[in-house]
Amino acid sequence: MSLLSVEDFVVRHGLLQAVRGVSFNVERGETLALVGANGAGKTTLLRAIAGAHPQASGRVLFDGTDLSGAPSHKRVGMGIALVPEGRKLFVEMTVEENLLLGRTAGRPGDWTVDRVLETFPNLKPRRHARTGHLSGGEQQATAIGRALMSNPDLLLLDEVSLGLSPLVVDRVYASLQGLISSGTTIILVEQDLNRALAVSDKVICMLEGRIALAGDSKSVTREEVTKAYFGLHRKSAGGVPA
Question: Which CATH superfamily is domain 4-229 in?
Answer without folding.
Answer: P-loop containing nucleotide triphosphate hydrolases (3.40.50.300)
